[in-house]
Amino acid sequence: MSRTGILFLVSGPSGSGKSTLCRRLAKDGEAEFSISCTTRQPRFGETHGREYFFLTREEFAAKVAAGEFLEHALVHGNHYGTLRSEVLGRLASGIDVVMDIDVQGAAQVRACDDESIHLALVDLFVMPPDEQELAARLNGRGTDSAEVIELRLRNAIDEMRHWPEYKYRLLSGTHEEDYAKFKALLFGERLRVARLKRD
Fold first, then answer.
1. 199: in domain
2. Which residues are annotated as a binding site?
3. What pTM did the predictor assign?
4. 10 Å Cβ neighbour count for 137?
């Protein structure tokens, strides 16, 4: 008895901890991380093909025109998108894929007409405890200017209104508490009879 892969779609505002959760899950070998494309500039220490595929706006537009994206959106003034090639083959092979994705992209994935995506989809919204904690986390990164932090905070407050669109919500606490709940959700979804297929 085998199963189809799970598409573990994770959203939440900047500073919610969603990226840390997704990358830790992949590092622990529990799922493979879907690397997104972006037109934003790499931050210090980021590498093309590891954190993101860093593309020019022209390269990104060409992939949109060719229909290569499962979803794509304009966020914080930059384009982000998930390549179909990063997801579909893995799911068919029974490999779980974790996606760190904004609310616009999540809505596009839900609206996708690919039946394999609908069967695989598990969506989770990571909610920060409150706006003050969120602002502290964004300032604590030390990677963005005050203007960028202010923009991210405004966008975060807007994003948080979308949590009822998700099947699951995780109210963020400590890193270890969040990760335990995060992993437990994935393990629970693996047991669903609807995912099992007879060999």
1. no
2. 12-19
3. 0.81
4. 18
